[in-house]
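We store sequence with structure; for instance:
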Amino acid sequence: MSVDINNESAFVIDEADLVAQAQFLLRKLYINPASELSIMLVDEVAMAALHEEFMDEPGSTDVLSFPMDELRAGTEDEPSDEGILGDVVICPAVAQRQGQAAGHSTEVEMRLLLTHGVLHLLGHDHAEPEEHRVMFGLQAQLLAEWEGERNRRSGS
């Protein structure tokens, strides 16, 4: 799976870890291995401009998703179509504040936002209560599985 990351923010982020997590998510969601995903890390000014232009909402936000080929999660027997999944844009400055408010690190918040953004690329939403339950349940499951994978990989 092709995962490109571009850090345009001032934050030093473990980019290899985010790429590894993205590849894990795409495998777990049975996305065709020939598919592509882009992750961008931007500052608050750039995020505010994107938020205003595409969501018509003022100010910065934590994560935005820009789907390209409208891929959907596959199954073990039938992976998704091949294509460009799209872009997940994350603002580490907002992630840092949200992580502090939630009592965890910026890195943990970034992993949550990446998972959230990928799920949005795959058509998940949380506007309605049932959609919220499904999306956040899947998000929690994927994050827990990724933490287990990371711990096995690091020998912790």
